[in-house]
Amino acid sequence: METNDLIKAIARDAAAPRLSLGLLLLGACGLASVIAAVVFSTLLGPRPDFAEAAHTTRFLLKFVITATLAVTALFQVAELARPNSRPRRRGALLAIAPAILLAAILMEIATIPTAEWGARLVGTNSLICLTMIPLIGLGPLAVLLAALRHGATTRPGLAGAACGLLAGGLAATFYAAHCFDDSPFFVATWYSLAIAILTLAGAAAGRLVLRW
């Protein structure tokens, strides 16, 4: 290729309309949600008493906590996608979901006899929770990492971890519809561990695929 042809090709590429990173991330979240929904529906599906459980505070709180985590993690992903990112600026938002969970735990402590705490923490589906949330979240994590490659992060590990946290929040939101353990004790222990698995996986993958 001649030099003039190369210059013209570069100019055409620069002039071509590009999708903004924000819209790209929103689209990636939409696709990630669809993937999570398909995997959830294929492997689990909602619990049989979903309609009845939807009238209880503990059941609904699970969705509030996990969805809040996903939304705040998305803000962090968007921040880390830029080379001049300041994670601390939006990092405080990530404390919202744990704060809601802590309030729920305090309510549980105040209303449930001490003798029942252990059983509620262990629950009946801990192994399924630890397995299914990461499994549901793997596809969304891959989609989010692929979208973030169109950014210019200078913190690939941290950006990957944020993607894992977002994928974990999405996966946990779907899994909550199946889970029979509604206690905040259970959510704080097993949901957190399952989401942590995806966060660590995202951090490791981010160091590999998000480097310049």
Automatic annotation (TrEMBL):
Transmembrane segments: 21-44, 59-80, 92-112, 124-146, 158-177, 189-210
Pfam families in the cross-refs: NrsF (PF06532)
Domain of life: Bacteria
Coiled-coil stretches: none
Keyword Membrane (UniProt): yes
Tagged with keyword Amino-acid biosynthesis: no
Keywords for this protein: Membrane, Transmembrane, Transmembrane helix
Name of protein: NrsF family protein
Species lineage: Bacteria, Pseudomonadati, Pseudomonadota, Alphaproteobacteria, Hyphomicrobiales
